[in-house]
Write a structure and sequence with these properties.
It is a single chain. The longest helix has 15 residues, at 102-116. This protein has helices spanning 3-6, 20-30, 37-43, 102-116, 131-139, and strands spanning 13-14, 47-49, 52-62, 73-82, 85-93, 120-127, 143-152, 160-169. It is of the alpha+beta class.
Length: 171
């Protein structure tokens, strides 16, 4: 986001229960499949796995609030970490806020939080035809480590392949 617009965004923060409705709505508007508010609540419930506890990150970026509003949701990033591996499960930016660096800010914030907990590998899947997302991840040092054939459903169309990308995060 240009410096002149940076002041319009509130600091990135962990989501609160009051954010979940807006997160569900933005995900539904941005992606071909979306989770309900109740599914988001379940996803954010602390859990453990055989490998240890699961740390969940739902980060939100809002337009700076005014006296009359809490600030419109500009974007979110959802990820989880188990032991030394983290995965970005969903990221979305409001259509009117795209190409302004919000995805980059969310990614930077996540990487900072992950590094504080020690080194790990960060992975994600991205549609092969999602050029803006592929550029973001390539610019941030992610490398292709696999391909998932017909991974994403499309409305009324053929499924789209997904690239599996990874980046090692050192201390």
């Amino acid at each position: 986001m240009p410096e002149a617009e940076e002041h319009l965004l509130a600091p990135i923060r962990r989501a609160q229960p009051t954010d979940l409705r807006d997160v569900a709505m933005l995900q539904a508007a941005s992606l071909n499949s979306a989770w309900s508010v109740n599914e988001w609540r379940q996803l954010l419930t602390p859990t453990t796995s055989v490998a240890g506890s699961v740390t969940v990150f739902l980060l939100v970026s809002r337009i700076r609030p005014t006296d009359r509003s809490i600030g419109r949701l500009a974007g979110f990033l959802f990820a989880r970490r188990v032991a030394d591996e983290a995965e970005i499960l969903s990221i979305a930016v409001d259509g009117s806020c795209r190409r302004r660096g919000i995805g980059q800010r969310l990614l930077n914030h996540l990487i900072g939080e992950l590094r504080r907990d020690g080194p790990c590998r960060l992975i994600l899947e991205v549609a092969v035809d999602n050029e803006p997302a592929l550029a973001l991840y390539e610019d941030n040092g992610f490398a292709e480590v696999g391909l998932r054939m017909e991974y994403y459903a499309t409305p009324g169309g053929r499924p789209v392949d997904a690239k599996l990308l990874a980046r090692d995060l050192a201390d």
